[in-house]
């Protein structure tokens, strides 16, 4: 798991380098990375351009289908409700994330979308993988923002 989370951290660092909130995501199928993404909300002025959404779009393009059955997503920060929903809609099998998000996380923190009854698909999830490394880049980013003021 750490191997793939390290790849998600590489994506988060790309966001950091362009002054975006440093969140990165990758999608893996059969131990091969098929999708990558990092936050581009500010760069593209689009609220939906979260790392997970971009990684899902990339994986769909790579695989030629929106059905991402058998895929796992590794993301440095707990997905928000939009991304947790997109993961469900894409039929991703497993979500692995590093840092919790106490303000917008919708897998364990604010709510658990995956415990709501009535949906068609429920991915399994694993939290806290390389939590310290994933948290550190976000803390560093926001500290830098505060220091610039």
Any descriptors?
149 residues, five-stranded mixed β-sheet, 5 strands, 40% helix, globular
Measured by DSSP, the beta-strand proportion falls in: 15-25%
Please trace the helix and strand order, writing H or E for each element: HEEHHEHEEH
> What is the terminal separation in angstroms?
38 Å
Q: Please mark out the parts with pLDDT under 50 across 5 or more consecutive residues, or reply none.
A: none
* SS field, number of helical segments: 5
SSE-based structural type: alpha/beta
Average of per-residue pLDDT values:
97
**Widest sheet, order of strands:** 2-1-3-4-5
Biggest beta sheet summary: 5 strands, mixed
What percent of the residues sit in helical stretches (DSSP H or I)?
A: 40-55%
Describe this protein's structure.
The chain is an alpha/beta fold and 149 residues long. It is 40% helix and 19% strand. It has five helices and five strands, in the order H-E-E-H-H-E-H-E-E-H. The chain has helices at residues 2-17, 41-44, 51-63, 81-89, 131-148; strands spanning 24-29, 32-38, 71-77, 94-99, 124-126. Strands 2-1-3-4-5 form a five-stranded mixed beta sheet. A hairpin with a 2-residue loop joins strand 1 (24-29) and strand 2 (32-38). Helix 1 (2-17) runs parallel beside helix 5. The radius of gyration is 14 Å and the shape is globular. The chain starts with a helix and ends with a helix. The mean pLDDT is 97.
